């Protein structure tokens, strides 16, 4: 599930916030755990079926991976990677209240600060300030905001994807109007009318 721009509050009815729902971790050491998420405009669910597909693709790359969930929302992808024995994950989330919910779920799973870190802020700005490469990056931004081209450019310019690292990119079914560096090789793809999902691997 991914975040939008609307601010929300966990406790204020006046703010128009609902309590939200849950996402389920489907495999690994936290299998079956349910994590609460906020009902924030722009959030959309990643179904168990789609997560099963994605992490079957990523099975060779998840163990001990240093991960980046660049538009974290619920954190469902990053937490799934940690459950499958990723080494660590950095979550970037713009919405303050969604970031607070991520912190609650990190505490619930008893993850250390070395295993999980939250950066609350704008993804494009944050990418310019990161100083390490990542083995596994998730890019699942809010739809219809044309965020992928600039995001990919900043990841490439800052060398944030490690050599042999993989990056998952999800966008609207007809929204694949982005390009990637020549050394990112497409290794998996699934198209539907609603979603275009791709995994690339950096060659060098």
What proportion of the residues is helical, as a percent range?
10-25%
Major sheet summary line? 7 strands, mixed
Give the averaged pLDDT, no decimals.
87
**Biggest sheet: strands side by side, in what order?**
5-4-3-6-7-9-8
Q: Runs with pLDDT <50, length 5+?
A: 1-18
Care to describe what's here?
- By secondary structure, the chain is of the alpha/beta class.
- The chain has one domain (about 20-200): Vaccinia Virus protein VP39 (Rossmann fold), CATH 3.40.50.150.
- The protein starts with about 20 loop residues before the first strand and ends with a strand.
- It is built from six helices and nine strands.
- Helices cover about 25% and strands about 25% of the residues.
- It has helices at about 50-55, 60, 75-85, 95-110, 125, 150-155; strands at about 20-25, 35, 65-70, 90-95, 115-120, 135-140, 160-170, 185-190, 195-200.
- It has a seven-stranded mixed β-sheet, sandwiched between helices. The chain has a two-stranded antiparallel ribbon with strand order 1-2.
- Mean pLDDT is about 85; it is low at about 1-20.
- It is globular and about 40 Å long.
